[in-house]
Amino acid sequence: MVMERVGRVKVKPFPVTFNGTMWVSNWDKTRWFLVLKAAIGEGKELPKLLDLMNRAFSVFKQPPLVTPGGGLDGFHVSLAWSLTKPSSETKRAIEEALEKAGYGTEIKVKDQQGPLKMEVKEIKVKIGNVVHIIELGTGGTGAEINGAAESRVGKRKASI
């Protein structure tokens, strides 16, 4: 269902820019995550993908993956996690370590102009123990990773 919808909407590859770090908890506050905050970007591809996922979840009467808000707009990359809420001292130590490494409030790659940016060319959807790969912009659907094998639908094929 998700693969069909992504193909139908024709989500194209897109860049994601990261604009800082923050601590967030899961819904039931049993884990806290240090995350890179991702900016939505001009093409708004991330909200399109989130909407597609949440619609698929609602068909199966499941709660949404993430709802935008809370300063994250729902988009982030987890770097570290903890079973307990990080103390002020822990947060300060991490901020100081990032400052010392030269990252400060803007996450950058050394010797690169501007903030950290990555190109999203595919998404992976895990259902049970099977990971489906959806190549963006190709309309390719149905690729799977099952165990150690990987296959791709679209312009190229590869295996692990």
Rounded Rg: 18 Å
* SSE sequence, one letter per element: HEEHEHEEEEE
Helix content: 10-25%
Q: What is the subunit arrangement here?
A: single chain
Outline:
globular
Number of strand segments = 8
Compute the average pLDDT. Answer: 75
User: Unreliable runs, pLDDT <50, ≥5 residues?
Assistant: 141-160
How much of the sequence lies in strands comes to 25-35%
Number of domain modules: 2
Structural category: alpha+beta
Would you mind describing this structure in some detail?
There is one protein chain. The chain is an alpha+beta fold and 160 residues long. It has two domains: 2-120, no CATH class; 121-160, no CATH class. It contains three helices and eight strands. The chain has helices at 2-9, 45-59, 88-100, and strands at residues 14-25, 32-38, 76-82, 117-120, 122-127, 130-135, 143-146, 149-150. The protein is globular and about 45 Å long. Residues 141-160 have low confidence and may be disordered.
What's this, in brief?
It is built from three helices and eight strands; from the N terminus they run αββαβαβββββ.
Descriptive keywords:
160 residues, alpha+beta, 2 domains, 4-stranded antiparallel β-sheet, 22% helix, disordered C terminus, 3'-5'-RNA exonuclease activity, hydrolase, nucleus, U6 snRNA phosphodiesterase 1
